[in-house]
Specification:
The complex is a heterodimer of chains A (420) and B (303). With 420 residues, chain A is an alpha/beta fold. Chain A has 19 helices and 13 strands. Chain B has 14 helices and 2 strands; from the N terminus they run H-E-E-H-H-H-H-H-H-H-H-H-H-H-H-H. In chain B, strands 1-2 form a two-stranded antiparallel ribbon. Classes of the chains: A alpha/beta (420), B mainly alpha (303). Chain A: This is ABC-type sugar transport system, periplasmic component.
């Protein structure tokens, strides 16, 4: 009897270790994570997500560093070369190219190729691909589009436009009512890039837009001029708020909040400050940027934020596990919900939060952007070109007559920037 | 061998203590100066001959960066703005002098007034920039309200490429005037009362007194005010960064800001090109510094 008890205890113990081993197959060692999500809400989300990962891997020693978003953009160059973390946040497409080309990002194609993850993330694969390999994973993205004051539209008897003619007709009525159609702040230039993205993608299509941004098309061409001509129609109408060159995008918010301007072409991140400023979901609504050239497939801007493994990382296996965890359907669902990042999950198996704007954005990106998904002007074009071009766009919005000079200047810069 | 008076041999340290001690105290300063100031200057000279993005291999391109500067419109805008800064910033010197003269009296509470005038120099340039940005704001700012009240049309100072540099310089003059004022206030303390007395006996007063008796005695203060103002104008950076970020469409750039933009900002990372701009700025500064040193040397010799 006694011996039997002993054996069963031993068996039990054996069983416990065996299953325990299988279950608590947690990671060990270190994992150093650098984040640029320094704003309070995303920061809390990221820290919670890492805490959950820690709970699943109690033996793993995780060290998280959050760096101010703007400072991160310069510091990343230093820490990727010396003192690399195991995981770092960054942005997709051309914004990661310098680091890919300098051999500072790890090739993580193994996570994508023929795996479940690869299938579920298919929609963003292009943005993470350079030279046929993948260099990171996305963790969130968000739609761009026109956010507008529904109450003003109702008051003036307008409805969401779908064509360029309707857009302009609406705008004229808004101007006649003594308001501006669009608010925009171009002090930091990139907001003008958003307008150009849409006008050019709608006038000339996604492929032309990409070719232009990659230096395969000339700026001083009929097609680009057509885009600027469309833009000029709005400028000449007085569609944009005055003095936009002195405002940042946040400083341009009061115009739509106070009802001096009816709409804002922006990314979904504008919704939170607009709600904070007191606009309810009854007052605020969203529509897809209208068609300009009939027959051209709609393409959208949807910037993707990403995680990468630096080539100089110490714990690449742990880092890979972390990336798999970040993109898993459940994690994607909750980190992107309205209470957290308030953006769109990248995993096709995740669900989108019950938020009016997220649902509309998801719907638009999944069913009505057959043309393709662009990142954003300054992420698709090389940084230097983006800077020169966006400066030219700002100038154009203030002094549309300078267009010839601006386009000539852009082509001259392009010649130098794309030479290699 | 050296011996003390009572014939004992002394250590080497003991004998040279007087000469060595100052050098020992200076050593950390000199080392830091060499390492963080002198060495980087030569490094910048060297770097300006390369094309380098800060990550990969630097590629030697000779004088190509300078050739490109020659064709770069933005460079000329910056250079032109630097000249405007140099000229207009000098207004801080007379302004500071007159405020100092005004405040150099014995009235109850004069210390409070002096502190209030000195206040802008103590607050951060970032705050000065923000305050003036709000002041200039075309929609909500007080400037256009004031202009409107006298029947003038509104201006968007920071959004107009013709006004923007002047607008920023005016903001910069606010603290700089305070700086010059404090220099002159100290200078005025040292004015010889006997000379004023003598001047008064000879019938000098008002402007003549100021011009022939006071100002000549303020020469040292004027010299320092001139030096700090010139250097201040050439290194203007923070106000531009805060108020306009170089815009609208690059119209308010100066060399130091343009250097930062191409080398270190979000869309930059052309280290070699940035270094070439830095070298040009250094050469301009060198002209002034050489002049200052030369006039200081002359002054010393004249004594």
């Amino acid at each position: 009897m006694r011996s039997m008890l002993k054996t069963s205890a031993a068996a039990l113990a054996f069983f416990a270790t065996a299953t325990g081993g299988a279950f608590a197959d947690g990671l060990t060692g270190d994992l150093k994570i650098f984040l640029d999500t320094s704003n309070p809400a995303p920061r809390a989300t990221m820290e919670k997500m890492i805490a959950d990962f820690q709970a699943e891997n109690p033996d793993l020693n995780i060290e998280t560093t959050v760096i101010d978003r703007e400072a991160y953009k310069t510091q990343i160059r230093n820490f990727l070369t010396a003192n690399a973390p195991d995981v770092a946040t960054w942005y997709a497409a051309n914004r990661m190219r310098p680091y890919v080309e300098a051999g500072l990002f790890e090739d993580v194609s193994d996570l994508w190729d023929g795996t479940e993850i690869g299938e579920n993330l298919a929609s963003t694969k292009g943005a993470l691909t350079i030279d046929g390999k993948q260099w990171g994973v996305p963790y969130t993205y968000y739609q761009w589009g026109v956010y507008y004051r529904k109450d003003i539209f109702d008051e003036l008897g307008l409805s969401e436009p779908t064509t360029w003619e309707e857009e302009k007709a609406n705008c004229q009525k808004i101007i006649d009512a003594g308001k501006k159609c669009y608010t925009i702040g171009t002090k930091f230039l990139w907001t003008a890039g958003g307008w150009f993205d849409y006008l050019n993608m709608r006038t000339n299509g996604f492929d032309f837009h990409m070719d232009l941004l990659q230096g395969k098309e000339k700026w001083d061409s009929e097609k680009v001029r057509a885009t600027f001509a469309n833009w000029r129609e709005l400028i000449d109408m007085g569609a944009f708020i005055d003095n936009h060159q002195t405002y940042s995008w946040q400083e341009a918010l009061p115009f739509i909040v106070k009802g001096d301007a009816a709409a804002y072409l922006m990314g979904n991140f504008a919704v939170a400050p607009l709600r904070d400023a007191g606009l309810t979901d009854d007052q605020l609504d969203f529509y897809q940027f209208v068609e300009i050239t009939p027959g051209i497939e709609m393409a959208e801007d949807a910037p993707t934020d990403t995680f990468h493994i630096p080539a100089n990382a110490q714990n690449k296996d742990n880092a890979r596990e972390f990336l798999k965890y970040v993109v898993s359907p459940d994690v994607q669902t909750w980190i992107n919900d309205g209470k957290n990042l308030g953006q769109l999950p990248v995993n096709a198996k995740s669900s989108v939060d019950q938020d009016k704007f997220l649902e509309q954005g998801f719907e638009m990106l999944s069913t009505n952007s057959p043309g393709g998904v662009a990142q954003f002007f300054d992420r698709d074009a090389p940084a230097e070109m983006a800077k020169v071009a966006m400066e030219g766009m700002q100038e154009f919005m203030v002094k549309p007559d300078n267009l010839d000079k601006i386009l000539a200047r852009l082509d001259r810069s392009a010649k130098r920037i794309y030479k290699d | 061998m050296a011996y003390t008076t009572d014939g004992h041999q002394t250590s080497w340290w003991h004998r040279n203590q007087q000469q060595l001690t100052p050098w020992l105290f200076l050593a950390p300063g000199i080392l830091f100066f060499l390492f963080y100031v002198i060495f980087p200057i030569f490094q910048s000279f060297n770097l300006s001959l390369y094309e380098w993005d800060g990550l990969g291999e630097a590629e030697f391109v000779g004088l190509y960066n300078y050739e490109e500067l020659y064709w770069d419109d933005a460079f000329y805008t910056s250079l032109k703005n630097n000249v405007i800064w140099l000229v207009l910033y000098l207004a801080a010197i007379p302004a500071g002098l007159f405020i100092a003269l005004f405040l150099n009296q014995t009235v109850t509470g004069i210390r409070l007034y002096k502190s209030l005038f000195f206040f802008p120099f103590v607050i951060s340039q970032v705050v000065v920039g923000l305050v003036f940005t709000w002041f200039y704001d075309p929609t909500f700012g007080i400037l256009n309200v004031l202009l409107g009240s006298v029947g003038l049309p509104p201006v968007n100072v920071l959004g107009d490429e013709n006004w923007v540099t002047i607008g920023i310089i005016v903001a910069g003059l606010w603290p700089q005037t305070a700086y010059c004022m404090i220099l002159y206030l100290t200078g005025l303390n040292a004015v010889d009362p006997e000379q004023i007395e003598a001047g008064r006996l000879d019938g000098a007063k008002g402007w003549r007194m100021l011009w022939y008796i006071i100002i000549p005695q303020l020469r040292p203060a004027t010299f320092i005010a001139f030096v700090v103002t010139i250097i201040g104008a050439l290194r203007s950076f923070d106000l531009i960064s805060i108020m306009t970020n170089g815009g609208p469409f690059g119209a308010s750039r100066v060399l130091s800001f343009y250097m930062f933009e191409v080398a270190l900002s979000e869309y930059g990372f052309r280290m070699g090109y940035g270094a070439a701009i830095a070298v040009v700025l250094f050469l301009i500064m060198l002209m002034f510094i050489a002049y200052f040193l030369w006039s200081m040397y002359k002054e010393e010799k004249a004594r």
